[in-house]
Amino acid sequence: xxxxxxxxxxxxxxxxxxxxxxxxxxxxxxxxxxxxxxxxxxxxxxxxxxxxxxxxxxxxxxxxxxxxxxxxxxxxxxxxxxxxxxxxxxxxxxxxxxxxxxxxxxxxx
Length: 109
What we know:
It comes from plant metagenome. Strand 1 and strand 2 (12-17) form a beta hairpin. The chain has a domain at 1-40. The protein has one helix and six strands; from the N terminus they run E-E-E-E-H-E-E. It has a two-stranded antiparallel sheet. The chain is of the alpha+beta class. The chain is rod-shaped.
């Protein structure tokens, strides 16, 4: 459950754990019992560790724009590779393909 801040007109700001379904409701002040509205406040991101902050950032990215194999290239895509093309094959004089360190009985496709 999230921790929400509420502002009592008599006692000041207090915090309460509530289900998200009840976040819009006024909450009774724990000291005087007055119904208090929720206060908008900034999240406490400064107290998060770097690893937790990175995890939150990755979760936010995947929530609104998940990666899909249909929208991009698959694993090992040669058109997006940053490294040079591997030299596992070599062209022969007659236009055939020769494999440098491969099994000669294997057929290429």
